[in-house]
Write a structure and sequence with these properties.
It comes from Streptomyces longispororuber. The chain is mainly alpha-helical. It is built from eleven helices and five strands. The chain binds a DNA duplex through helix 3.
DNA sequence: ATTCTTACA
DNA sequence: TGTAAGGA
């Protein structure tokens, strides 16, 4: 708690913990002031509002990636700083160090998924970029390493730099709403998977339909049909729901 | 002399 | 986590 508060202070007014105004002439690392810059151990610690010892402690627990080593000195960058801020924020939200460590591990594993998300063609679904803290807020108590790994496995979540990216605003909102109402996130994701399978089948149907008629009707592209397909599927879904409800 | 690690409390 | 001691 003390740590997190100091970080909060540092972020807010730019002054970190114990009055470190000793005239060594070292520059303060300000919020987003110098991206791409590298930090020495002490600089990093000061920028994050924690002690050098704590940084080392986190590193021993695998909470932050190893620094770049240049002979004797360890160089840290913005990623490390961002990670430290994230750790502090998650700690403040009641996460345990152990839990954060596992989260970090799952986070590292999904690093390469970012490309999968980035190179998306035209889609109406807008990706949502959010920090680990924001994610923890949206799914209070459900942000476990297991769930995080599963979400990445399913392709809902990826990472971009130090941010997390959800592939779809609407899916994110829907799942967050369900979780807020008490549905376990795992259940939501499993249901989502099954729905996706059917959606894939529908998409395949649309594609083959397009191909079948492409010869005679060149203006019949998938993108032309997208809004039509959407309204057809939505209408059929409504009707299907009606049938189930009325007969039950 | 400085920066970082190891070891102990 | 603080701190003292020691390697490079």
């Amino acid at each position: 708690m003390g740590v997190a508060e100091e970080v909060a202070d540092a972020v807010t007014d730019g002054t970190a913990g114990t009055g470190g105004t000793s005239g060594s002439g070292a520059e303060d690392a300000r919020e987003g002031g110098t991206p791409g810059r590298e930090y020495r151990m002490e600089e990093l610690a000061r920028a994050a509002g924690i002690t050098v010892r704590t940084v080392r402690f986190y590193r021993e627990r695998g909470l932050i990636p190893p620094p770049r080593r240049e002979g004797r000195i360890a160089w840290y960058d913005d990623h490390h700083l961002a990670r430290l801020r994230t750790i502090a924020a998650l700690l403040e939200r009641g996460h345990t160090l152990q839990g954060i460590a596992e989260l970090a591990e799952a986070f590292e594993k999904g690093r390469d998924v970012a490309e999968l998300l980035g190179i998306d063609g035209p889609s109406e679904e807008t990706p949502v970029r959010l920090t680990p803290e924001e994610l923890a807020d949206r799914f209070a108590g459900e942000v476990t390493p297991e769930n995080l790994a599963a979400a990445m496995e399913f392709g809902y979540l990826g990472t971009d730099g130090d941010d997390i990216v959800h592939i779809s605003r609407r899916l994110l909102d829907a799942s967050a709403t369900l979780v807020r109402k008490g549905v376990p996130l795992v259940a939501v994701m499993e249901a989502g998977q099954r729905i996706r399978e059917h959606a894939d089948a529908l998409a395949e149907l649309l594609l083959s339909f397009t191909l079948e008629h492409a010869a005679e009707h060149p203006e019949l592209t998938v993108e032309e049909l997208r809004p039509l397909a959407k309204s057809v599927v939505e209408a059929e879904l409504s009707l299907a729901l009606d049938r189930r409800l009325h007969q039950a």
